[in-house]
Every structure is written in C-alpha cells, then in structure tokens.
Amino acid sequence: xxxxxxxxxxxxxxxxxxxxxxxxxxxxxxxxxxxxxxxxxxxxxxxxxxxxxxxxxxxxxxxxxxxxxxxxxxxxxxxxxxxxxxxxxxxxxxxxxxxxxxxxxxxxxxxxxxxxxxxxxxxxxxxxxxxxxxxxxxxxxxxxxxxxxxxxxxxxxxxx
Length: 160
What we know:
With 160 residues, this protein is mainly alpha-helical. It has one domain (3-159). The protein has six helices and no strands. Helix 1 packs across helix 2 and helix 3 (55-77) packs parallel to helix 6 (110-159). The chain is elongated and about 75 Å long.
C-alpha cells in the first residue's frame, strides 16, 4: 500500500464522513473534526487490514480509535460523543458484504449468502464491540472520578 493510496483514501473518507455529518444536522463547527476522525479511522482500518488481512480485527481497532477520539472531543467541544462517533464509523460499515448477502439470497445461492453474511455480521459486531468497549471504559472512568471527588469534598467538610 502506497502513501498516495492512503492519502487518497483519507481525503475521500473524510469527505464522506463530513457529508454524513451534514446529513445528520450536526453543528457546523463539528464538521472538520468529524471528517478528520472518519478519515483517520478509515486509514487505521486500511493499514491494519493490509498488515493482518483480518477485517474483524482492523474494524475493531479502527472503531475503538474513533470512539476514543469522539469521547475526548465531546468533552473538549461540549457536544455529545454521538455527533462524532456515528458519522466516524459509517465508512467502516460493511455495506458491500450486506448487499452481496442479499443478492446471493435473491439468486438462491445460499452457500455464498451464508459465508458473506456471516463475515458481514462479524465485522459489524466488531465495530459495535470497539465502540462499546471504549464508551464503557470512559463512562466507568468518569463515574469513579466523580466518586473520588465527592469523597474528597466530604473529607474537607469533616475537617472544617
């Protein structure tokens, strides 16, 4: 994979992600960060898939990255994380696999439909697991942090 290919894929996935963000009526000042998140997420997928040839693993790590950056930007820009995460993961969705599954089913080619469909479901599940893992870890972190801060406040009140 060449650097030129990666840059081209980054640009087009960033534009597609920003386009989906516009479609979802996201705030205007979130368009550039959303585009960058989607572009970097797709680039991570491309690099990991080129190295491992495992779409499930590549999608998991790309979705995890998108979710992590979405959580960070949500707190930085004072927007919900979903504004960044949903458009960011859209380039990762296995649309061609889902389309081919339906095409094989309509044609009566059930063996290929099961094979392609199973792969599409596993890829979709890996995307969902990547987002779920990071979102859960971030929420757990903030719950623990809030409890620690509340305990410190209680201790300060007792000392006074």
